Amino acid sequence: MDKLDYPVPELNVRISFIHALIAKQGFHFARPEKRTIKKAISWDDVVQVETPFPVSWLSAKIAKKMDKPTIGTFHIYPQNITSSLPFLNNRLVNWLFMLFFREKSFKNCDALQCPTPKVAKWLRKNHFKQQLFVVSNGISPQFINNSHKKEVGHPFTILCIGRFSHEKRQETLFKAMHLAKHAAQIRLIFAGQGPLQKKYEKMADKLSNKSIIQFFTPEKLRQVMAKSDSTLC
Question: N or C end of the chain: which has fewer CB within 10 A?
Answer without folding.
Answer: N
